[in-house]
Amino acid sequence: MKTRIITGIIFTIAVAGFVLPGYIIPQLPLMFFFIVAAICIIEVSTIVKIKLNHLNQALCVIGSLAVFTPLVSVLLHGDLGWRMISDYSIAEPNRLIVERSILLRYVTESITFLFVFLVVFAYVSIFYMIISKGPTVLLDSFSMSIVVVYVVIPVACGLILLYSIPNGFLWMLAAMITAWVSDVFAYFAGVTLGKHKIVPLISPKKTWEGSIGGILGSMFIMTIWFSLIMNRPDIVEKTIVYRISFGVVIGLLSSAFSQFGDWFASSIKRWTGSKDFGKFLPGHGGLMDRFDGVFFTFPIMLIGAMFYYLV
Q: What is the pTM of this model?
């Protein structure tokens, strides 16, 4: 327990050191996201390789380069969406339409570049595996593409949040915070109140009481976040009632999908007979053991941000 606590403190400080200064130095979170993607791909591919011997880890790491593709949109326009405060006067009647069109263009372009890269990577890597080792490795080659997609798409969604969404720094932080808050609340609620198993075939220790505790904790934190933190100048003005309501809904959805991410990761570990994804974080397991929930909150938060600004 002592090792787990010390590791948790060091991990929190390291993440904060990379992420929090990121508003001033945007290269730091970019470096952080790539490190997370690379390490997580290595960890996932390592335990999947237990079942699929021919899975090529080197190609998996090459596939992690896809996390950079959303930045092509930023480079094309020479602007950071997260700092995008309108150049138009508040009295400009077309201001909102213009800002929303810019937002939609940034996100659409980012997702398109990501999708194209992943499709090309899947085709090339599968053909390479089949040609070099024969058709018997077909399952391994498909699984390799799935491993890359499993890690890259969520991390890329985090980058799209950060660089293509107005106030994206706060949206990105919200996605990370809600996953870890949900995990903490679920743990303590499960330990103190947990009696009824929720997914016994996947994770025998998970309970309905813990799951509900995680959801309530996430809803509480996101309500505070969107009522007090997300009140900066923005491309749309939302009432306090709307922001509170949005915080409740996004907190519920983020916690639910964070728990789905945890269960999915547990399924992989149970399938391969592994306790953890690695030993990168003593007392916690691998880095993937800390980010399995965050990987599922990034896409949900991106969808929520699009809804927030476009609807």
A: 0.90
